[in-house]
Write a structure and sequence with these properties.
Helices cover 73% and strands 0% of the residues. The chain is mainly alpha-helical.
């Protein structure tokens, strides 16, 4: 009878030990899962930040391109409307085409 009681006590202790070990293992697994979840969240936030940075960079590059195009268009419009040294009444944009007449007298007497 004593052997049966001792066997029952040993069996109960083994069962209690196995349960404690199982609880410890599940707690470690839970902690590991929390740790991985935190790491994944940090990685996700980092990737989202990189994406926002790239999108902002693309938007600023597009804005810079648009600004440059507007400046070029303004310069072309100003150049198209500008006269002066490039063209006068007596000459075209190519300058004098024929020979210069330097031997004749002018109104100033020279």
């Amino acid at each position: 009878m004593m052997a049966a009681a001792t066997g029952a006590i040993i069996g109960a202790l083994i069962a209690a030990g196995a349960t404690a070990y199982s609880v410890q293992q599940s707690e470690e697994a839970r902690q590991e899962a929390r740790k991985e979840k935190k790491q994944q969240g940090e990685a996700q936030r980092r990737l989202e930040g990189e994406l926002r940075g790239r999108q902002e960079g693309a938007e600023s590059a597009a804005l810079a391109r648009a600004t440059r195009e507007q400046a070029r268009a303004r310069q072309r419009a100003l150049a198209a409307g500008a006269t002066g040294r490039r063209e006068t009444i007596l000459t075209g944009p190519l300058g004098l085409v024929g020979e210069a007449t330097t031997g004749q007298k002018t109104l100033l007497g020279l």
